[in-house]
């Protein structure tokens, strides 16, 4: 499928950018779009209307001016009104295939969007996607889809597309990583990885002193001969102590008898 035609760059005031909050995208732009109500002025300059699944994100965004441009190429952001197509006529699941064999948008997470001062009023949802090439690698392009209600099944949505500043991982998609982890029996578990990553704390001077004292005590203990009762009794000092006892009745004598 051919890429969309280039969109003329609108004349904008220098320094003007478009960076709405998640709830503002839903309540001020998507809601009126679904209800066929007038949109704020200059909306068409920032939110384009096209099929984001018609081409890969690089070719898609090349045909439209970004709604926000930062200091480098990776800080550009595009917004689109689009209507996802159903996978088949029997269900409500959407087709995330891109163009003709140009990869797919892989779902990563989903989050409810709240509005109001207390952020207690549910107005829609935000679903995050990452673009995977036909070979299964990450292209570095990300997309956020905003819809009304808890789960919008049909009608237009707002898509925010931008490129991550992190380097893309070629040939290593999230689904491939999960499959490899499930089929590799040699892969260590999370508990084993934490044990392998454990490092003993560095030794302090007190620890060194205690270790040296323990080593000297062990060496002295090894050099000390075992206790021998016969040798002990043969010692003159030991006999002087033993003579102070009446061994016949095992009763201590008086101290006067030992003088």
SSE topology sketch:
Elements: H1 22-34, H2 43-46, E1 47-49, H3 57-62, E2 77-82, E3 104-115, E4 121-132, E5 138-148, E6 157-163, H4 174-183, H5 190-196, H6 205-223, H7 229-234, H8 236-242, E7 245-246, E8 251-252
Parallel strand pairs: 1-2
Antiparallel strand pairs: 2-6, 3-4, 4-5, 5-6, 7-8
Features:
259 residues, alpha+beta, six-stranded mixed sheet, two-stranded antiparallel ribbon, 8 helices, elongated, disordered N terminus
Structural overview:
- This protein has eight helices and eight strands.
- The longest helix is centred in the C-terminal third of the chain and has 19 residues, at 205-223.
- It has helices at 22-34, 43-46, 57-62, 174-183, 190-196, 205-223, 229-234, 236-242; strands spanning 47-49, 77-82, 104-115, 121-132, 138-148, 157-163, 245-246, 251-252.
- It has a six-stranded mixed beta sheet with strand order 1-2-6-5-4-3. A two-stranded antiparallel ribbon has the order 7-8.
- Mean pLDDT is 75; it is low at 1-10, 179-183 and 237-250.
- 20% of the residues are buried.
- The chain is of the alpha+beta class and 259 residues long.
- The N and C termini lie far apart (121 Å).
- The radius of gyration is 40 Å and the shape is elongated.
